[in-house]
Model the fold of this input.
Amino acid sequence: MPRRVDHDERRRQITDACRRVVARDGLEAATFQAVAAEAGVSVRLVQYYFGHKHGLLVATHRAVIEGSAARFGGGPPPGEGAGPPSPRAVLRAVLAALLPLDDARRADAVVLAAFHAAALTNEAIEPAELRGAPRALVDVVAAQLVRARGGEAGTGKQQGTDDTARLDAELVLASAAGLTQGILAGHVDDETALAVVDRLLDHLVDPA
Done:
């Protein structure tokens, strides 16, 4: 009996290969031929699953974002007890997951930077196709800020609090983006980046 193909696993195999190609050689290098060779599959198989290069790139970007999101759910932050983590601990864990503090996150940050650079010049991918994940992150951070300040996000009872939290969430994520670029460029080391995160949270949330 022929072996049953796991199509989701095969797609992951190909998008993982595309991530490696982009991280190593840049977005322009992510041709069907290069990705197929990296994945150890045929060009025809890449075409079968993704149709065209644009479909492959969009799927690869989504895979990187989903990988980052999975890190957010990796269990309670260090030092937290068995109960629900505090809003500050959640925020610190989210920011630490976003920063390129290990080889895997560094590679993902390089890939995302390549996509964003291409979107700025409308090369290969449209800016609108990259907006979903940042908007979702703003929601996550804002909800934790409202919770830290004794409110409940989205109830309609504290609209001013919600609005302020969303602006603060934009500030938090802009800071994370700047720290990411600093780490990638070698201007900021990991310890300093985390110290900046703690300093920012001290200003926005009562210190732990």
